[in-house]
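Q&A FORM
Asked by: J.P.
Topic: structure of Enoyl-CoA hydratase/carnithine racemase

PROVIDED:
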Amino acid sequence: MTSTVGYELNDSVATITMDDGKVNVLGPDMQAAINEALDRAEKDSAKAVVIAGNDRVFSGGFDLAVFQSGDAKAAHNMLAGGFELSVRCLTFPAPVIMAATGSAIAMGSFLLLSGDHRVGQPKTKCQAIEVAIGMTIPIAAIEIMRMRLTPAAFHRGAALASIYVGDETITAGWLDEIVEKDQVLASAQTAAAAAAQLHTGSHVATKLKARESALQAIRAGIDGLATEFSLG
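REPLIED BY: S.T.
REPLY: Here is the structure written out as C-alpha cells.
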C-alpha cells in the first residue's frame, strides 16, 4: 500500500485505513490506493472489509485543488473515480463496514453511505457541504443520498447542507451505530467479523437486487458527469 492507505488482514477481515496526515482528501492518489487495497482484499479472499479514517477524520471529500486547477479532464476523472469507488463498495463481493473515526464531509459522506454497515462516534459530523461552498451536488451523489437517507434528511442534507451529528446521524440514516471514539475501529472490526459469517454469495446477490434501481441511477449519473458539469 502507499503511505496514505494501510492494509491489514486478520481472520478473513481486511482493514483499509485512510491516512494522508490531514483530512483524507479523496483525490486521484487516494482513490487509486483504496482501489489497490480493495484489489488486495479480493485477492486475499477477505470475507469482510473495514474502511476507516484516521484519528481526525473519516474523509473531508474531494481534493478541491483539482477543481481549482482549471483542468476539466482532471476534475471529471476525480469525480468519476470517486463515484466509481462508491459503486465498488456498494457492489463489493463481501460486506463492507465503514469506520467513521471522525467527520465525513462531501465525497467522504457519500463514501460513508456506500458501506453495508457504518460505525461512528458521538462527534462524527456528516454533511454534504456542496451548496454551502458554491457547488452543485452531482446526480450520482444525490442518488447515493436518496438510497440511504430518510426522505426528510435527504432533502435537508442535499438542498440545505444540513449537518448531522450524534444520534441525528442514525435517525437520518448516515450511520448505523455510535460508539466511543476510541472504540470505532474495534467495533467496526467486530461488525465485520460477524458479517464474515454470512453466506457470501447470498449476501452479494441480495444486496445487488436490493440496490438495483439505485445503482442504475448512480451509474447514469457517472456516465453523465461530463454533460452535467460541461467537463471535457
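FOLLOW-UP: Residues 72-90 form the longest helix (19 residues).
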